[in-house]
Design a protein that fits this description.
Blueprint lengths: L6 H17 L9 E5 L3 E3 L1 E12 L4 E2 L4 E9 L4 E6 L1 E4 L6 E8 L3 E10 L6 E11 L1
Parallel strand pairs: 2-10
Antiparallel strand pairs: 1-3, 3-4, 3-8, 5-6, 5-9, 7-8, 9-10
């Protein structure tokens, strides 16, 4: 008994297997994560504290141990993007919550920009969050 093999079908199946194993399972991307402000209003002053939570949007769980490597606080929402202030990381005892000390010199709208790396993800998670400094 002789078995005939369709070479084109065999080649196509082989190519599909190679492609599936070469690229592996699909990973999450940076769009699957988001920073959220814990409070939209923060008391103005040189010891203002801004807290954000990083969540996995696919399941709503907090993401701990992200490496936040870039931050910027400016008054872009009020048309003063050149008005910036310092941002200093602070410790946090809540999973997925990141705290920062900043000097909100004026009442009004502030934009907090963050960039972070999440363990196991190739893409950078970036967010621009708008908060209000109040007297």
């Amino acid at each position: 008994m002789r078995i005939q093999i369709n070479r084109r079908a065999l080649a196509g199946a082989f190519a599909a297997v190679v492609a599936a194993t070469a690229y592996g399972p699909a990973n999450a991307g940076s769009a699957d994560y988001a920073f959220e402000l814990l409070e939209n209003e923060v008391k103005q002053g040189e010891t203002a504290t801004v807290a954000v939570r990083l969540v996995d949007k696919r399941n709503g769980t907090p993401v701990s141990d992200a490496v936040i490597f870039a931050t910027r606080m400016d008054m872009a929402p009020d048309g003063m993007e050149a008005m910036t202030t310092s941002v200093e990381a602070m410790p946090s005892n809540q999973p997925g919550v990141y705290r920062f000390k900043t000097n909100l010199t004026m009442a009004g709208g502030w934009q907090f920009s963050l960039a972070a790396k999440v363990q196991g993800e190739a893409e950078t998670v970036q967010s621009k969050l708008v908060l209000k400094a109040v007297e």
